[in-house]
Design brief:
The complex is a heterodimer of chains A (119) and B (151). Chain A is of the alpha/beta class. Chain A is built from five helices and five strands; from the N terminus they run βαβαβαβαβα. Chain A has a single domain, classed as Response regulator (Rossmann fold). In chain A, strands 2-1-3-4-5 form a five-stranded parallel β-sheet, sandwiched between helices. The longest helix of chain A has 13 residues. Chain A starts with a strand and ends with a helix. With 151 residues, chain B is of the alpha+beta class. In chain B, strands 1, 2, 3, 4, 5, 6 and 7 form a seven-stranded antiparallel β-sheet that branches. In chain B, strand 2 and strand 3 form a beta hairpin. The model of chain B has no long low-confidence stretch (mean pLDDT 89). The chains are: A alpha/beta (119), B alpha+beta (151). Chains A and B meet through helix 1 of A and helix 1, helix 2 and helix 3 of B.
Chain lengths: 119, 151
């Protein structure tokens, strides 16, 4: 399973990576990007099975990444891992085609539940 | 505009982020109605919109190291200053994101801003402390304050 983690915080990328492993995906091929633009460029070059993206990032936000992917006709599954938990953000995310939203703080069980359909 | 946030609400958010997710021992909750002082790391995320203010997280070097070690999976002695700053900023981001739905109106959350040094004192111009809590474990300290804009 190829997973692309997108977050401007190296600390958060590290903890997401560890939680994904603890969720039962120890063998996943995990790569990272620091913002939406970097993720968009790398997804164009090689499509992962799923993208785990933060929402608030410099250069290009997570929702802008999702909208750019869908505009290009790329239907790669993208789930948000974000501290944004309000209803309007969830509505916007799912309207744009998000697969799921994991709200920080999270547990490994959140990743087990959300990633299982894509494994 | 009168908001509904209380110190126990903030403590629940802080503890779910620091204790439950990261496994940090942040110590005991003490009286935290005054701004923190003499800290080594400070991170803030701002709110702009119907309600304007900021969440400010401050801690000493020891708790900063422990937070970074928990996030990076390293030993506290092995983390760098940049990694501590990243970790404390992300802690502020998590707390801010969970505070946001409890605000009385729509607000946009900023990216974290982090400062580091020694014996620092922090104040935010044009804002006053609205809710504040503090944790102590021996000499280790973690303070979280929500500032409300007074302009």
């Amino acid at each position: 399973m190829k997973i692309r983690i997108v977050d401007d915080s190296k600390a958060m990328r590290s903890i997401v990576r560890r939680h994904v492993s603890q969720a039962g995906f120890e063998g996943a091929d995990i790569t990272e990007a620091e913002n939406g633009q970097e993720a968009l460029d790398t997804i164009r070059a090689g499509r992962p099975d799923i993208v785990l993206s933060d929402w608030n990032m410099p250069v290009m936000t997570g929702i802008e990444l999702l909208e750019a992917l869908r505009t290009e006709g790329n239907d790669v599954p993208l789930g948000f891992v974000t501290s944004e938990s309000s209803a309007d953000f969830k509505d916007r995310a799912f309207d744009a085609g998000a697969a799921f939203m994991i709200t920080k703080p999270f547990t490994a069980d959140d990743f087990t539940r959300c990633l299982a359909p894509f494994s | 505009m009168q908001a509904q946030m209380t110190a126990p609400d903030l403590a629940t958010i802080v503890e779910s982020s620091a204790t439950m997710m990261l496994g940090l021992d942040i110590g005991v909750l003490v009286d935290g109605d005054a701004p923190a002082s003499n800290f080594a790391f400070g991170a803030s995320v701002g709110f702009t919109g119907d309600w304007n203010g900021a969440v400010v997280v401050t801690c000493d070097d020891r708790l900063g190291r422990e937070a970074a070690a928990a996030m990076f999976g390293n030993e506290p002695a092995d983390v760098s200053g940049d990694e501590i700053a990243d970790a404390v900023g992300e802690l502020a981001n998590m707390i801010g994101g969970n505070v946001k739905p409890l605000l009385p109106g729509a607000a946009t959350l900023s990216l974290p801003t982090v400062i580091q040094g020694s014996d620092l004192h922090l104040g935010i111009a044009g804002a006053s402390v609205w809710v504040g809590i503090a944790y102590r474990r021996g000499d280790a300290s973690l303070d979280v304050h929500i500032y409300e804009s007074t302009k």
